[in-house]
Design brief:
Blueprint lengths: L7 E2 L9 H6 L11 H18 L5 E6 L2 H10 L7 E6 L2 H12 L3 E6 L8 H10 L3 E7 L1 E2 L4 E2 L2 H11 L2 E5 L18 E5 L10 E6 L1 H10 L8 H11 L8 H17 L1 H21 L3 E2 L11 E5 L6 H12 L1 E2 L11 E5 L7 H17 L6 H11 L1
Parallel strand pairs: 1-13, 3-4, 3-5, 5-8, 8-9
Antiparallel strand pairs: 2-10, 6-7, 9-10, 11-12, 12-14
Bound molecules: pyridoxal-5'-phosphate (PLP).
Amino acid sequence: MRSYTDKFIMTPGPTEIPHRIRSALIRETTNPDLDPQFLELYNSVRAKLKRLVGAEKADLYVWVGEAMLGLDAAVANTVKEGTRALVVDNGVYGEGFADLVKLYGGRPITLGLDWRRSADLHALERALEVHKDVEVVTLVHCDTPSAIFNDLREVGKIVRSFGPLLVVDAVSSIGAAEIKFDDWGVDVLIGGSQKALNAPAGLTILAISERAWDRFKAVSRSSFYENPLLWKEMLDERGVFPYTFSDVLLYALDESLRAIFEEGLDSVFGRHEAARRASRAALEAMGLEPYPADVSCTCPSVSAFLAPRGISPSEVRRVAWERYGVMIGGSWGKLEGSVLRIGHMGVQASYAHLAVAFTALAKALADLGHKVDLGAALEALASRF
Ligand SMILES: Cc1ncc(COP(=O)(O)O)c(C=O)c1O
């Protein structure tokens, strides 16, 4: 194995942490409990995140803990014994919501859909017509393991017209795609720091609508660690954190958000859109089969594709990493052993990053006996950026 001084991380989260954000991790530390400026910074990060996800009318918190904490808390506080929850299942995380619903005593209705397409809106409508007792709908905006992207705006419209709460996992779309929390009728939105925000893993983001607060009160889950009501009471009413916050992680997230707003949201989202189109074109030029049926069903933050017949995805990843110093992703759940992924999250959504990733992929495939046309792939990539 060669030893590279730079690790080239092209996995769909955690991602490379750009220098600017990494530098924030070594900023002068403080006592987050006692430093009034830390509270100011925390509130300014909340304000930036609200702008990023269009949640100006909502409440938004950042908690220490990776994104699973936010998903768990969202379900724990909206589902109680017997709650009927419609789980939109067109991917690994989509399906996974059913386990959380059961864990908190709810009765999931799994809307099993085509895993290679965005959620079928007619099927969603029909399910809500049939199951009038549904109180909560769960959706994954971008299902990272399969790179399937769902139309949150349209799902939000439909769910709102029937009345249930809409809980959305936006862990790998936050910072990569437009989200309008207030306008699209989302009730709880969960984000994470280590995907398109290019910060270290360890922070979860929770946006909460007025209707969701009413539901949280009604569910009245007894928990200290996953209790948004406690954050409202302690942080918003008394200006104290329920527990010691990680100052360095917040510095990193703040730096990430500053970079995003300096670039401008249109440019950031446009860059991710270009990355999704260009990556698909590069895959097709290499004769590889993208997992999503169509580019419109593909996340702007990740591309997934099938390993060529007879070639093991873990071998491709091993060779790309050991010989070429580039880390690409496999998948898991039902997709483990067949799907490979390249992230285009935040800084990864650039021509230069993707050119390196596709070069390593082509070289690894060739080393394993499957020759592809790298020149055509790079040409396809370049012409769409
Ligand atoms: C769509 C989605 N949701 C949730 C998670 C969980 O995030 P974490 O690993 O930070 O708990 C991931 C992580 O890959 C994800 O891709």
